[in-house]
Design goal:
This is GH10 domain-containing protein. By secondary structure, this protein is an alpha/beta fold. It contains 11 helices and 18 strands. An 8-stranded parallel β-barrel has the order 3-4-5-7-9-10-12-13, surrounded by 4 helices. The radius of gyration is 24 Å and the shape is globular.
Length: 429
C-alpha cells in the first residue's frame, strides 16, 4: 500500500503521477483515493492519542490482610506527565521575574535560543564566555526544567562566528576541535540532547572544508564527550513543513541519517530525529505521512523549534500542528520556538511584553491542561476496584476508608508498559 496525504487547493478533475527511483518497472493496480472530513481526521487523531499516550488504570484497595475495601474514597492527582512540552528561552529570563514565572509554570523543557551557539560563547578567537548559558542552566535546574543543547555546530556558512568563516584548514580544524570539547564537556550530563550539527541537509560549511563525513565525525566525538543518556539530534527544517523542499524530504533525511551512522556504528546509539517545524500554511496530511516515513528509523522524534507564521489563522494552525505531533506515537517531545525578547520574538510570540497570553499562548495553555490528566476521584466497587483512563506519567493516589485511621497515599507510575491497555495496581492499605 502506498501511503501519503494531500490537501487540494481547488476542486475539479486532476491527474496524479507516481514517481519512483526503483531499478525495476512498477505497476500500480486498484488505485483508490479516500477523502476524509476534518471530523474523521480528528477522530482518528483522538484514537491515536488514546493508544499512544493513555492507559486505563485499574486500582484495587485492600486491607493489610488482603481483603478488598469496598466504598473506599480514591483520588488521583497528576505529579508529572511523561510527554515533554517545552519552549525556547532567551537570556532575558535571567532579569525578568514575570518571564521566569510564566515560563517555569508551563514548560518541562527549554532550548536556549542563541546563548549556547558558538558565535555567542566565543565571539572572538580564544575568548570563551559561558556566563550567560551557565546562568540559564542554573535557572532551568532550579525549576526542574530539562535543557536541550543547541547547538554544537551550525552548517550554515553565515551563522559561523565571524572569525571562523575565513580560517584556513589547519586553524579551522583546531578551532572546531576546541569548540566541541569545550561546549559538550561543559554541559555533559546536564542536557537531555545535543543538536550536534544543525541543518546539515541544507548547508555544508564543514563538509566543504573537512570532507563529506565531517558531520559523521562530529557526532562520534560528541558521543565520546557526553557518554550519558543525551540524545544526539540531526536537526533540520522543512522536512515536515515544506513538501516542495527537495533537500529536506523525509527520504533524504533518512539517507543522511544512515550516512552519519554507517561510518561510525557507535553513532547509531542515542541518535534522534529533530524536526524544526517552522510552518507557514501547515499541510497536516503531509505532516502525518512524513512522520510515518521517519518513524521507520525506529529512533525518537522531536519537534524542536515549532512556530507558525503570522496571519489570521496563526493560532488555529499552531493547534493543528501540535495536536498532530502529539497524536503520533513516534513523537517523544515538542519544543516551541517563541523565546521572548523585548523587541519581539523570532516569528511567533506566545505573550505580549506584560506576559499576557496572545491567542497562540492560549492554545498552548489549553493543550497543556488537556494533556495533563485532570484529578480523578471516586469510590471503589464491591471488590475494591477503581478504574480511570490516565495519560502516561506519575500520580499521587490517596485512599481513605472508615476502616483506616488515616488516608493512605501512594505514588504510581503509568507508562506504555507491555502494550496492554489495562494497568493493574494493588493498593494494599
Amino acid at each position: 500500500m502506498l501511503k501519503g496525504g494531500l490537501t487540494a487547493a481547488s476542486s475539479g478533475p486532476a491527474e496524479i503521477y507516481f514517481e519512483s527511483n526503483a531499478t525495476v518497472d512498477l505497476w500500480v493496480d486498484s488505485v483508490s483515493l479516500n477523502p476524509f472530513t476534518r471530523d474523521e481526521w480528528a477522530a482518528h487523531r483522538a484514537a491515536s492519542v488514546s493508544a499512544a499516550r493513555k492507559k486505563t488504570v485499574r486500582l484495587q484497595a485492600t486491607d493489610s490482610a488482603g481483603n478488598p475495601l469496598a466504598g473506599a474514597a480514591v483520588s488521583l492527582d497528576a505529579v508529572r506527565t511523561n510527554f515533554p512540552l517545552g519552549a525556547a528561552m532567551s537570556q532575558h529570563i535571567l532579569t525578568n521575574s514575570a518571564y521566569q514565572t510564566w515560563f517555569a509554570s508551563r514548560f518541562a523543557v527549554a532550548t536556549f535560543e542563541n546563548e549556547m551557539k558558538w558565535y555567542s560563547t566565543e565571539p572572538a578567537a580564544g575568548r570563551e564566555d559561558y556566563t550567560v548559558p551557565d546562568a540559564m542552566m542554573a535557572f532551568a535546574k532550579s525549576n526542574g526544567i530539562a535543557v536541550r543543547g543547541h547547538n554544537v555546530f551550525w552548517d550554515q556558512p553565515s551563522q559561523q562566528p565571524p572569525w571562523v568563516q575565513s580560517l584556513p584548514y589547519p586553524q579551522l580544524l583546531a578551532a572546531a576541535s576546541r569548540r566541541i570539547r569545550s561546549v559538550v564537556s561543559r554541559y555533559a550530563g546536564q542536557v537531555i540532547g545535543w543538536d550536534v550539527v544543525n541543518e546539515n541537509l541544507h548547508f555544508n560549511f564543514y563538509e566543504g572544508r573537512f570532507g563529506w563525513d565531517a558531520s559523521t565525525a562530529f557526532y562520534a566525538a560528541a558521543r565520546l564527550l557526553d557518554a550519558g543518556s543525551a540524545l544526539m539530534f540531526m536537526n533540520e527544517f522543512n522536512t515536515l513543513e515544506q513538501p516542495g523542499d527537495m533537500a529536506a524530504l523525509p527520504a533524504r533525511y533518512l539517507q543522511r541519517l544512515r550516512q552519519i551512522t554507517a561510518a561510525y556504528p557507535e553513532n547509531g546509539a542515542g541518535m534522534a530525529i529533530g524536526l524544526e517545524g517552522h510552518f507557514t500554511n501547515p499541510n497536516i496530511p503531509y505532516m502525518r505521512a512524513a512522520l510515518d516515513t521517519l518513524a521507520q528509523a525506529g529512533i525518537p522524534i522531536w519537534l524542536t523549534e515549532v512556530d507558525v507564521a503570522a496571519g489570521p489563522a496563526q493560532a488555529q494552525h499552531l493547534e493543528e500542528v501540535l495536536r498532530e505531533a502529539y497524536a503520533h506515537p513516534a513523537v517523544q517531545g515538542i519544543v516551541l520556538w517563541g523565546a521572548w525578547r523585548p523587541e519581539g520574538c523570532y516569528v511567533m510570540c506566545l505573550t505580549d511584553n506584560n506576559f499576557n497570553n496572545l491567542p497562540q499562548g492560549d492554545v498552548v495553555d489549553r493543550l497543556i491542561a488537556e494533556w495533563r490528566s485532570t484529578p480523578r476521584a471516586g469510590a471503589t466497587d464491591a471488590q475494591g476496584f477503581f478504574e480511570a483512563e490516565l495519560v502516561h506519567g506519575e500520580y499521587k493516589v490517596s485512599v481513605s476508608h472508615p476502616a483506616l485511621n488515616n488516608s493512605v497515599t501512594r505514588s504510581v507510575k503509568v507508562d506504555l508498559g507491555s502494550g496492554s491497555e489495562h494497568y493493574f495496581i494493588d493498593m494494599q492499605v
